[in-house]
Write a structure and sequence with these properties.
It holds the Pfam family Complex1_LYR. Its main location: mitochondrion. This protein is mainly α. It is built from 3 helices and no strands. The protein has one domain. Helix 1 packs antiparallel against helix 2. It is elongated, with a radius of gyration of 15 Å.
Length: 87
């Protein structure tokens, strides 16, 4: 897929992918709020922001799909860890 010129509106698949990425970002930040230690919370927040920022210019559909999958797996791992910590 060729890169689109910046003056063109995003295609529907790009729009949906962007929505998925933003939704994942919000879910991760929400989960991080439950981390009990302030230092750990701040570290995870900074790390998350940096990862998303570093990949914000990605345009390759397969690479973006893979990053979303990895992000969801990391979110699930964080949620599992938080659940274990509470029990």
């Amino acid at each position: 897929a060729a890169e689109r010129p910046p003056d063109l509106p995003p295609s529907s698949s790009q729009f949906l992918r962007r929505q998925q990425v933003l939704q994942l970002y919000r879910k991760i930040l929400r989960a991080i709020r439950q981390v009990p230690a302030e230092a750990d919370r701040q570290y995870l927040k900074d790390w998350t922001r940096e990862e998303f920022r570093r990949n914000k210019d990605a345009t390759e559909e397969d690479a973006i799909r893979m990053m979303i999958t990895q992000g969801n797996m990391q979110l699930q791992e964080l949620q599992r860890t938080l659940k274990l910590a509470k029990s």
